[in-house]
């Protein structure tokens, strides 16, 4: 994973976007470059020639086009081709175009745009006003990296801006000395302004812990349970974790279509090549080394492939590695097999050592690792077939440190009294196991614009802090050790950090920076922190104590099946969006929904028969040591119930209830996770709306239920959406997928679901790389609203529509309507009744005012039931 990148020649052959990913050098191609155009390539090029004028291309421009990938789908007959422009063998970023033809050869959709008169446009550009060295310095400053860092030499690239204009930029690749990150920064060659900063590594947490000690089993361990040939003791689908059910032995679980030679094959012939957790689709192991990872331990099932390793929750995460790696191997292969059934094929860029069909790139099976870091999960995306000893598609899962349940105690009987769970930091003094460390809680005041951050070395309230327990806010204005050192300088006995989220992860600290720290540091959740701050602000002193205890066993990320599915899904979304050669560069724009698709796969894979959409679902509850009903790692749980999850498109780019749903300008993935939450929320609504229409099918691979149909729509839409998509691009791709795969049978339902979450026909996306130019809209296209049975001879008016709380209902009754009271119900597009009331016939005729102030924003149906029948109208409730 060193920052080595593709040469210009390989860029030309293998991908076009090269937007912001630190793409590795292809030292030796894993498959020969095709010399004969496929039928899909030919069809695409013929289309471009025939429509050159409408595409803005001159005859000369046709010589600067390259087809980066093409394939056909068996299940719906669609043909996909991906093109871009190049200049002297180097891709022009932002010129990625997708052409998608139906089974009859008719163009279904076209995404993206070219630059007309490319070479003339380049000639008109002024020479760079910013030097490469100045651009490099700017990039390092933006990433808060030391000036002594050694990035790759800056290269001059060209890109198409959202306005269509061509621009030149310096592309700087930076690999920080610690952690897995691989950054790409684009610096405007004319102004020196940072245009983008994106991390190729898709991380599940903003900060990760230090490397774990090498305490994994040193030698292969054989299974000790009963001999079950080709059996894997795992927490099988749809179990989410050990908290959701017992482990069982899955016997011969490989899909005969997706993995015809089993999970331990690599050569396409009968018989396994490996008896450890390695095969054509995945290799599960504990790593050794740093950055250049060498596989260490893998469980061995012997010649009978008997992987029967028990999970013991009372033991450490390291002691459970054989069982965890077996479980990880099972789930990585399961994701491979199931996604192939839905169209993530060899031709479209899936992850395999050997492509049995002989098409596309091979050698890129998933390297699935456990144990390199604390409290983290991440996916390293690469283009199809692009691998080196230093960069390859990988899932990395950490060991998650558990909280001390009663580490902090607040005395008295006030609103903050009680015990609090906390996570100790691995620096400074350890919490005492005997007599507790006591004092008054004192909030930091460093004199800055954010005084409670405690970043400055000299605190204004040092006299109050001395001999007591300091409290500071968790933020990224400075390092944790700086806060701890400032608290120690102020005379504090300990420091309590108040986290900005309701989950805690291991604190990363450079050992070189912790010299001289002599007081403890612990961290509490946002909810607990707000409770403490509110009580401190009330004026009364809070007496507290800190005490250590034997820590509960850490949890192994290999047992959180939802997290495994989430990380694997990053590989699916990056390979399918913009074509298999474009990964990961077509999902690095500001409004991209990568985390949303991954959360959706996590929820979808772990849905059990009998589940309902209104039940709140948290992400990562197992690794966070939460109950199965816990809130998880996201700011809102997933639920079709607006009372539990009221996320809409209006959240994007905004701060809602203290949560940032926008970009922080630094490219860290917390914001992308919150952006993804909004996208997954609407996908989750769609899944349950489809289940309501078609039912649920427990056969995840070949079922025909609404859940199966939804996943097919999602997979097809990933292929049909443009490179660098926004939310409305994704919506339109799902609508196109429904037309292509299901004949448009679900168009009205899809519009209803998306309009309910602010992605209706009047929504505005703006640039998909700008989070502040979008507008939510809750309308459904005319003619698609579901109105139900109507009362002849009467009309129903509701206004104002859209409304912000008060709605006037006016019923112009026909002679058959009668004079009985009118029952009114307001229902969501998913059939949930959210408001009911009764008005007299006289009031309805005159115009009755309904108070919908308790109804969440969205699209609803107002049903007025009279003695003679029902009238229905659609209404939009705005925030």
Automatic annotation (TrEMBL):
Residues 64-114 form the FTP domain. Residues 1-27 form the signal peptide. It is found in: Secreted. The keyword Nucleotide-binding does not apply. It comes from the Bacteria. Residues 798-877 form the Secretion system C-terminal sorting domain. Its main location: secreted. Belongs to the peptidase M36 family. This is M36 family metallopeptidase.
């Amino acid at each position: 994973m060193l920052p080595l990148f593709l040469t210009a020649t390989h860029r030309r052959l293998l991908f076009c976007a090269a937007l912001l990913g630190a793409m590795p050098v292809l030292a030796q191609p894993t498959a020969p470059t095709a010399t004969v155009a496929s039928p899909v390539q030919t069809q695409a090029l013929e289309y471009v020639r025939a429509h050159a004028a409408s595409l803005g291309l001159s005859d000369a421009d046709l010589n600067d086009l390259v087809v980066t990938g093409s394939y056909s789908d068996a299940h719906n007959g669609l043909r996909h081709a991906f093109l871009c422009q190049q200049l002297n063998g180097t891709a022009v970023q932002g010129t990625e175009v997708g052409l998608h033809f139906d089974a009859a050869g008719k163009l279904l959709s076209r995404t993206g745009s070219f630059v007309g008169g490319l070479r003339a446009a380049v000639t008109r550009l002024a020479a760079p006003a910013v030097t490469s060295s100045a651009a490099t310095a700017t990039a390092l400053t933006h990433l808060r990296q030391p000036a002594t860092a050694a990035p790759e030499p800056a290269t001059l690239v060209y890109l198409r801006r959202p306005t269509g204009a061509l621009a030149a930029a310096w592309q700087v690749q930076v690999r920080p000395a610690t952690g897995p990150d691989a950054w790409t920064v684009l610096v405007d060659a004319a102004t020196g302004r940072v245009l983008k900063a994106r991390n190729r590594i898709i991380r599940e947490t903003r900060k990760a812990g230090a490397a774990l000690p090498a305490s994994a089993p040193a030698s292969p361990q054989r299974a000790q349970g009963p001999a079950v040939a080709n059996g894997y003791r795992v927490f099988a689908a749809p179990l989410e974790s050990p908290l959701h059910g017992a482990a069982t032995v899955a016997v011969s679980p490989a899909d005969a279509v997706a993995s015809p030679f089993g999970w331990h094959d690599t050569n396409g012939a009968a018989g396994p090549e490996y008896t450890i957790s390695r095969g054509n689709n995945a290799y599960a192991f504990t790593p050794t080394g740093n950055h250049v990872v060498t596989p260490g331990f893998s469980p061995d099932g012997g010649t009978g492939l008997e992987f029967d390793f028990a999970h013991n929750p009372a033991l450490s995460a390291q002691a459970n590695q054989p069982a965890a790696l077996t479980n990880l191997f099972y789930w990585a292969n399961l994701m491979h097999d199931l996604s192939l059934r839905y169209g993530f094929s060899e031709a479209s860029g899936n992850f395999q050592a050997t492509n049995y069909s002989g098409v596309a790139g091979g050698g890129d099976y998933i390297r699935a690792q456990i144990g390199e870091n604390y409290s983290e999960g991440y996916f390293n995306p690469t283009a199809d077939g692009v691998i080196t000893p230093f960069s390859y598609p990988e899932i990395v899962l950490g060991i998650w440190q558990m909280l001390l349940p009663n580490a902090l105690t607040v005395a008295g009987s006030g609103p903050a009294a009680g015990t609090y769970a906390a996570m100790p930091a691995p620096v400074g003094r350890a919490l005492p196991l005997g007599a507790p460390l006591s004092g008054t809680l004192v909030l930091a005041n460093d004199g800055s614009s954010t005084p409670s951050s405690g970043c400055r070395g000299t605190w204004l309230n040092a006299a109050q802090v001395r001999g007591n327990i300091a409290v500071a806010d968790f933020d990224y204005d400075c390092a944790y050790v700086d806060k701890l050192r400032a608290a120690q300088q102020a005379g504090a006995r300990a420091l309590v950090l108040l986290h900005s989220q309701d989950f805690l992860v291991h604190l990363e600290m450079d050992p070189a920076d912790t010299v001289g720290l002599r007081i403890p540091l612990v961290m509490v959740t946002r909810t607990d922190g707000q409770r403490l701050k509110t009580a401190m602000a009330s004026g009364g002193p809070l007496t507290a104590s800190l005490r250590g205890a034997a820590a509960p066993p850490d949890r192994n990320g290999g047992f959180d099946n939802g997290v495994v599915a989430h990380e694997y899904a990053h590989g699916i979304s990056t390979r399918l969006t913009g074509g298999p050669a474009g990964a990961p560069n077509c999902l690095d724009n500001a409004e991209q929904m990568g985390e949303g698709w991954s959360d959706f796969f996590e929820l979808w894979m772990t849905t059990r028969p009998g589940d309902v959409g209104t039940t709140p679902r948290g992400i990562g509850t197992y690794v966070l040591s939460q109950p199965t009903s816990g809130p998880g790692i996201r700011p809102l749980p997933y639920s079709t119930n607006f009372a539990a999850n009221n996320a809409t498109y209006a959240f994007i780019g905004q701060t809602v209830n203290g949560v940032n749903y926008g970009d922080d300008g630094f490219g860290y993935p917390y914001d992308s996770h919150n952006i993804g939450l909004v996208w997954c929320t609407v996908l989750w609504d769609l899944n349950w709306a489809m289940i309501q229409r078609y039912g649920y099918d427990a056969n995840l691979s070949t079922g025909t239920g609404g859940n199966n149909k939804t996943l097919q729509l999602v997979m097809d839409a990933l292929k049909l959406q443009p490179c660098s998509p926004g939310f409305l691009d994704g919506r339109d791709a799902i609508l196109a997928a429904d037309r292509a795969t299901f004949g448009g049978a679900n168009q009205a339902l899809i519009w209803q679901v998306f309009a309910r979450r602010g992605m209706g026909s009047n929504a505005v996306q703006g640039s998909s790389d700008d989070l502040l130019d979008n507008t939510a809209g809750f309308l459904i296209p005319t003619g698609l609203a579901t109105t139900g049975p109507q009362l002849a001879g009467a009309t129903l008016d509701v206004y104002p529509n859209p409304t912000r709380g008060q709605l006037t209902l006016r019923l112009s009754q026909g002679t058959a309507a009668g004079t009985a009271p009118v029952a009114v119900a307001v229902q969501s597009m998913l059939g949930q009744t959210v408001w009911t009331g009764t008005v007299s016939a006289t009031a309805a005729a005159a115009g009755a005012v309904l108070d919908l102030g308790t109804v969440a924003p969205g699209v609803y149906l107002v049903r007025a039931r009279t003695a003679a029948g029902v009238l229905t109208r659609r209404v939009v409730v705005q925030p």
